[in-house]
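User: For a benchmark we're assembling, each entry needs the component sequences followed by a predicted structure for the full assembly. Here are entry 17's components. Please fill in the structure.
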Amino acid sequence: MQLESMYQDIILDHYKNPHGRGLREPFDGESFQVNPTCGDEITLRVHVDGDTITDVSYDGQGCSISQASASVLNDLVVGNTVKQAMTTMNAFVELMQGRGTVEPDEDVLDDGIAFAGVAKYPARVKCALLGWMALKAALASAGAAEAAQGVEVQ
Amino acid sequence: MTTSMTPGETDSVGRGSTATTPANVPLDVAALRADFAILTRTVRDEKPLVYLDSGATSQRPRQVLDAERKFLETANAAVHRGAHQLAEEATDAYEDARAKIAAFVGVDVGEVVFTKNATEGVNLVAYAMSNAATAGPEMERFTLGEGDEIVITEMEHHANLVPWQQLCQRTGATLRWFGVGQGDTAGRLDLSNIDELITERTKVVAFTHQSNVLGTINPVRQIVAKAREVGALTVLDACQSVPHGPVNFHELDVDFAVFSGHKMLGPSGIGILYGRRELLEAMPPFLTGGSMIELVKMEASTFAPPPQRFEAGVPMTSQAVGLGAAIDYLNSIGMDNIAKHEHELTRAAVAGLSAIEGVRIIGPGIEADGDVHDRGGAVSFVVDGVHPHDVGQVLDSLGIAVRVGHHCAWPLHRALGIPATVRASFYLYNQPSDVDALVAGVREARRFFGVAEDGQAGGQA
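Assistant: Structure for entry 17:
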């Protein structure tokens, strides 16, 4: 039963059919992030038009949690403003760092709520946050000021 | 008077701290498992624990815990200082532990240096070599500079890799390394270029006795012989070999070797550096301060002879006593018997995992005679279509503790073109049913992630 609480169907679906995967041009910011404890890695690019994120493209290798999280990130962020993206990121980070005590808001996180079960496994929280760390750094490198005000992703 | 700890003498299963190795008998695993309380606990919704991560750290028997407690309750004091009775007894206990360790790995008692862990042991040698640069002409044999080379291997744990990289950075020396073979020699060191790699320029050759990922046992004598030919110092990482079978550093003819207490039923926070006596006599210190001095004046100081020269500060005493008790425990069972037991488990695990479609052993597999050779009980593998983390999570949900990731051997994984592996590692307390649970768990991981049909191992996505 525990396994199913972590590996929700939504997560497995995103893992098997990732949304927006692959690195694309043009882009305004890029970040490479690695999880030093396991070697999982991601390269993520953002394309920003005015204050709207018009594309998030990514590539890398990692477990189902890290890959599905990047796919959900793509869904949640593309088409929104940088500010909205940071709000979403903060909500996701709060969920993941809550040790299973945070009730996720589906209106904000959509498919991201499926990661609530992952939050109960401290060793896997980093996997779920890898793509979001890359998003924050990519937005910062694209010069999006709000990115600097996001919560600290540990 | 001595306070040496031999709790095994009153052990209910009759093991004592005898110097003689028991006759060649199969391990009574059920009986010895009773000494490890942690093995009786359950995890993840009442699943019996199947502990297959002894390559990372081993569990400790009651005898080791009792020895530490008894020491602390009866004889604790700062060693090698003070003249009261407790100080005497504590010093005796500490030095008795050193003697047990020396005998266990076939070296002289003065050649055993206590460190925080094996990593510190490697760093001690590397920093002593840095310090030699400013220590005067008599230290020349330890100094490194531009044009000098350090040779390591691609299968090293970061602990026997990063300190040498850093030493090269500090001194201008060049780091070179042996690769890991392909095809027929997959999982073995590629020594075909040994004459080009180990040359007159080589000052240090540092390598692992047994890979913590591949399980490969390396040909120590061949490498040491070549290093001797060119006058290079040898440093052996014995963390994965000393706990699992008989090892004699004098016979292996290495100059330095390191291993850790916590991987051999002992406490954490203690490691061992073996150094050939004449080298320790000549080598400058790494950490300096109390205990390691001979004479201190405001202007300058001189240093104690080894091993004290390399043990600055009040050392870890109950940990040394605990490690001594761990050695008593291992001796009472017999290292040959432990090695045989682990060999059987390893053969069964490699065979069982290899039989699953889509599973690839990363390291030496089953050979033509149906057995495994020159490999220890670290069994790493990958499962096609399922990331190692996810395999590990499924195993964890079944109560099976394995390691996933790069196991602190990132360059090896990069060379093999795989980001990570799942590693099961065995010890004396593991039993055949643990292997069965592992194999069944890997099949379940394939089913869960949809790369095998329900109940069939052969399905492929």
